[in-house]
Amino acid sequence: MAPTTPVFDAAKVNVLFVLGGPGAGKGTQCARLVDDFNFCHLSAGDLLRAEQVREGSQYGEMIRTYIREGTIVPMEVTVKLLENAMLDAMTTKSGEEWSNGRGRFLIDGFPRKMDQALKFEEDVCEPSAVLFFATTEEVMAERLLERGKTSGREDDNLESIKKRFKTYENQTMPVIEHYRQFGKVAEVDSTVSIDEVHTATVEAVGKVLAHEYVPKST
Predict the structure, then answer these.
(1) How many Cβ atoms are within 10 Å of 64's Cβ, its own excluded?
(2) DSSP 3-state assignment of 14?
(3) In the sheet that 103-108 helps form, which strands lie side by side, from edge to edge?
(4) Which of 16, 34, 64, 192 lies in the 20 to 30 Å Cα band around 43?
(5) Cα-flanking dihedrals φ and ψ of residue 132, to 5°?
(6) CA 99, CA 186: separation in Å to the nearest integer?
(7) How many CA atoms lie within 13 A of 99 on its CB side?
C-alpha cells in the first residue's frame, strides 16, 4: 500500500499542537495568539462538542458517550473534523500569512495519544512544534472546578476531572516526550498569571515562526 501524502505542505502551513493538562490555560492563550500572529485556532474538543449536537451527525451519540466517560474519541473522527476545519480556514482566512497556499494553525488539545499524532502527520500535516503548557494537578483542578460554575460543560466536575487527569498522564505525556526528543517542544510554565504566561508564549511562538526553533535531526 502506497504511503499517504498529507493534505497540507508543512513548508507552507505551520501547525502548532497546543498541549497541556485540562485547565492548563490552552484556550485562553490560543485566543490571544490569534490576535498576535493571525493564527486559526482549532480546538479538537470544541469541534467534537459541536459535532455531537450537529443535526444529522453520524458521530453525535458516540462522541457524547466518550466525552461523558472522559475517554478519547476514535482518532479517525477527530482527525477528519480537524482536516475539514483546516480546509475551510484556508479558503476563508485573510492576510499575508494566508496568501499563496500558506496558513498557520493552533490545534488545541490534540493529539491526545501517539497514534493520533502519527495519523495526523500522515494524513494532514507535519507539525512545526508542540506548545506545551506545563502546570500542576492542583492548579488544574482548582481552575476547572471554578470554570465548571459557569461553563455548562458536563465534564467540569470532580469525577470527570480525575478521569481526565489520568488519561492525560497516561496517554498525552508520551506524545509530548516523543516530540521533545526531536527538539520540537516549546514548554511554557502556566502556573503563573495569564499575562506572564502570554509573554512567555509569544516569545516561544515567535521563535517557532521565525524558524529559530530548530528541530533536532533524527
Answers:
(1) 16
(2) strand
(3) 40-43, 103-108, 13-19, 129-134, 185-189
(4) 192
(5) -110, 115
(6) 26
(7) 2
How many alpha carbons lie under 13 Å from residue 197 in its C-beta half-sphere? 23
Contact yes or no for 13/105 (Cβ under 8 A): yes
4-59 pLDDT, tens digit per residue, is 799 999 999 999 999 987 777 888 899 999 999 999 999 988 899 899 888 888 88
- Nearest one of 7, 152, 192 to 88, comparing CA atoms: 7
pTM over 0.90: no
Task: Write the single-letter amino acid at 165.
Answer: F
Question: In 26-170, which residue ranges form alpha helices assigned H by DSSP?
Answer: 26-37, 44-53, 60-69, 75-92, 114-123, 137-151, 158-167
